[in-house]
Each structure stands twice: as C-alpha cells, then as structure tokens.
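Q: Sequence in, structure out?
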Amino acid sequence: MDKEFQYITAYELAEREKKMAKPQEKKEAGKERAEKSERTEIAVIQPTEFEIMDRRDEEQILKELQGAYLDEFVYSFRLGNRDIVGLSWAGVKEIARKMGNISIKEIKVDETEKSYRVLAKAEDEVRRITMFGVAEQSKKMRLGDGREIDDVFALNKALSKAQRNAIRSVIPELMIKTMMQQFLEQQKK
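A: Exactly. Output:
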C-alpha cells in the first residue's frame, strides 16, 4: 500500500498536541499515530510569520462575530530564532478609530467555487490617500484532526481581512510603530 502524506503546519501540529492533555489520551493518541504512520506520514511545514498572524487574526474575527471584546492589539511570538511583533486586526481598527479619519469607501466580493475574494478600498480623508486591500479565503476549513469542513464564516473572514489590509495601508508607519509600542506597554501592565 502506498503511503499518503498529510501536510500540516507546525502550528497545527502544536495545537493537536495541546489537545492531548491527559496521560491516558496521550498513550492512546500515540498508538493511533503509530497505527497511522504505517499508511500516512505527517510532513510538518513551518509557517511563516504572516501565516501565524493571519491565523490569529482569523481567531480574533471569529471572537468578534461572537460579541467578544478584543484587546490583543499586538501579536508577539518567537519564530525560530527571531522575535516577531505585528499589529492584529483589533490593533488596526483601534489605530483607525484613534486617528478618526479613515473609512472604507468600497467593497467588492468575488466568489469562486473554492473561495471568496474581497477587495476593500480605504481612504484617509484628511491626507486624501486611498489604498486597496485584498483577501482570499477558502470556503473549506481544516480541523485539528485533519478533516476539512465547510467554513460558514469564510466570507466574514475574507471581508475583515481585506478591510484590515486596506486600513493598514493608509496608516502612516510612524503611527503604527508608536501605537505598537504603546500597546505593548499596556500589555505588560
């Protein structure tokens, strides 16, 4: 029998392992992994910093849809031997609110068989700068166990990501740097 390969990111592998918290479950999972390894090998793909931040933004988008208050404005994590710091979806929105002059002027949605593609147009009304942001989101979502299911929030995710990208592009980099430092100081407190 030919072996199959299942490609997952290191992040997904870590999430799988976190779910196996109880000692008995770990033993059973180890047996299952050994049985599966005869027919399936797991190839771990190291995610990029952008993939990790994008996944964390997806988590924020889903929490926001459920009515949660978002207070993680900056992501910081270690990837390999580098410290990564980036602005989250909540952080982008917070800076736009504080600036008070950024708005989304137009949204275009294109649906394909497998995904949604969204184009968002943001404008800084004071500086008269217009930029675009795009996002594509698969209609399928891979679960921690490797199964794929329909993602009922795929359009919401694509829309939020396109807006994030458009808004982020009209915020001055100096403002982003300054606000990220403030957000990090607040997180420490």
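Residues 49-65 form the longest helix (17 residues).
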